[in-house]
Write a structure and sequence with these properties.
26 strands, alpha+beta
Length: 526
């Protein structure tokens, strides 16, 4: 079945699926029996299209926002038969299913691999431009090929998105093959391993592409020339014959042995046929287009990595941020229990009362000043900013990467944070209400990982260690740093603390012992 999807941005994509059952959902990975759509209002498993003979049915799978057919919401777990005029809406995406392309019943269907959609001529993809230009060509042929490729290169140079690139490519393809008597051209560009139809011409008619030929050139990495069997011994169920195609050229778009997609040109009706010289010209155009498509893909990857990296650098130390940024689609951190992690919790003492007497703009400016100066200190000592919570910051040392100096780093970061707050109070904050922070530090097991929806994954740590750390923070007065016995046991040779430890009464954890950090005495773990 052929499914046309118009998303929230107005961009239309064509999907051709051979499966009799196609799942539709949000951000599903590519597959022969499912379609993933970038629409935030679509559920993960939203609806299913089913083909039964010449009928197409749709079923809502219990989605959050429902499935609509011709502006009427269908009941969950209920199948509705679609007509050629049916308009389906899921989230903000509109679907049209081309029912006319449904195959006959299975008993009458002949496997697509048995039809005579086989190339009569082939050209190896990946040849050099000079080979493609000169092979078996007259001077006029060479001039035509060179002109087509140069014009295409000039037009593609400034394009920054795949949709525009596909449109310009097909325009130049038709220009390179001016209409011949009795012939009309249909063309298209299929991209990716799943051969998604990104563009086709003419747009006011159904595409004529043969997935059999497209997969053939994709797997063989060879351009092919197909012609209708002049002897008449053609299986009439063949997709190309059904659409009136008399001759066709299919060529792979290859960059350094990687197949990026397939470009096709069909001669529909009449007696116009393509020859081997046409195939060489089209392969030249495909080779030029592949270079630009790969370049565009690399640019988009670099931009995406730069954006992800800039966000990660605000949360992680640089080495970790750079490692994670190399794989923005899948954060390289297994969700797991970590036994030794040191957590730092900091917030402003009496913030609610202090901020009540301040203008909102000044409150926000003061908080931004504080986090602007405190965050680099956490990162400097290999800490990770888990989250900001109003006037508080939660930082983790020893996660996501292990750190044998996590205890020393956490306390040194806390001491430097208190020093920075003192400088702010006597400097930029002079004349404002005095914001002072209390800091609590505790060591214990946590579960760490990236948590959230696919559209927004955030690193975090969870577990009782976080709650216990917040108790130490709440008990710390302005300018104080309180550490737990678990943390102190790792640090006793490096810090001077107040003895005996304080008792902190808590509702759920009972009485906690807390050491007040006086100063850093120096030294380094051997």
């Amino acid at each position: 079945m052929r499914i046309s999807c118009t998303g929230p941005t107005g961009v239309t994509e064509q999907f051709i699926k051979d499966s009799d059952s196609v799942l539709i959902g949000r951000q599903l990975p590519p597959g022969p029996d499912q379609i993933g759509l970038a629409d935030g209002e679509i559920s993960g498993r939203h609806a299913r299209l089913t083909r039964k003979g010449n009928e197409i049915w749709i079923e809502d799978l219990g989605s959050t926002n429902g499935t609509w057919v011709n502006q009427r919401k269908i009941k969950p777990k209920t199948k509705i038969q679609l007509t050629p005029e049916s308009v389906v809406r899921v989230g903000k995406t509109t679907l049209k299913v081309d029912i006319g392309l449904a195959p006959p019943p299975a008993a009458e269907k002949k496997p697509d691999t048995q039809i005579k959609e086989k190339p009569v001529e082939i050209i190896e993809a990946g040849q050099s431009m000079s080979d493609l230009f000169l092979a078996g060509a007259s001077l006029d042929d060479i001039r035509l090929r060179l002109s087509a490729v140069c014009e295409l290169g000039a037009s593609l140079g400034e394009i920054d998105n795949v949709e525009s690139l596909a449109s310009v490519l097909l325009e130049h393809l038709h220009r390179a093959f001016p209409g011949r008597p009795g012939g009309a051209w249909h063309s298209g560009l299929l991209l990716g391993a799943d051969l998604i139809l990104k563009a086709f011409r003419p747009e006011d008619q159904a595409p004529t592409c043969s997935l059999t030929l497209a997969r053939h050139v994709q797997s063989q990495k060879k351009g092919c020339l197909w012609q209708v069997d002049a002897s008449g011994g053609v299986d009439k169920s063949a997709s190309l014959i059904q659409t009136g195609v008399q001759s066709a050229m299919y060529v792979p778009l290859i960059w350094k042995d990687e197949v990026l997609g397939v470009l096709y040109l069909d001669a529909v009706s009449g007696k116009a046929v393509f020859d081997l010289e046409d195939l060489r010209l089209m392969q030249s155009i495909a080779a030029q287009a592949a270079m630009f498509i790969k370049n565009l893909s690399l640019q988009q990857t670099m931009q995406r990595e730069a954006l992800v990296k800039s966000r990660l650098l605000a949360q992680f130390p640089r080495p970790i941020a750079e490692r994670l940024a190399r794989h923005p689609g899948r954060m390289e951190l297994v969700s797991e229990r970590v036994e030794a992690v040191t957590v730092l919790f900091s917030d402003i003492r009496g913030f609610t009362k202090l901020s009540a007497g301040m203008e909102p703009e000044l409150v926000v400016q003061t908080l931004n000043d504080m986090f602007h100066d405190l965050t680099p200190i956490i990162l400097k000592y290999n800490g990770t900013v888990d989250k900001y919570m109003g006037d508080a910051v939660l930082a983790v040392f020893g996660s996501p990467d292990p750190d044998p100096q996590q205890w020393e780093n956490a306390v040194q970061a806390a001491l430097e944070m208190q020093a920075v707050i003192n400088n702010l109070v006597s400097g930029r904050w002079k004349g404002r209400p005095a914001f002072r922070i209390g800091i609590g530090i505790h060591t214990g097991p946590v579960i760490h990982g990236f948590i959230g929806a696919p559209e927004r994954m955030e690193y975090t740590v969870i577990g009782s260690t976080i709650n216990t750390t917040s108790r130490y923070c709440a008990a710390a007065a302005a300018g104080e740093i309180l550490i737990s016995p678990a943390a102190y046991s790792r640090l006793h040779q490096f810090v001077e603390v107040e003895h005996p430890p304080r008792d902190i009464e808590t509702k759920h954890e009972g009485t906690l012992k807390a050491y007040l950090v006086r100063r850093w005495t120096g030294g380094k773990r051997s």
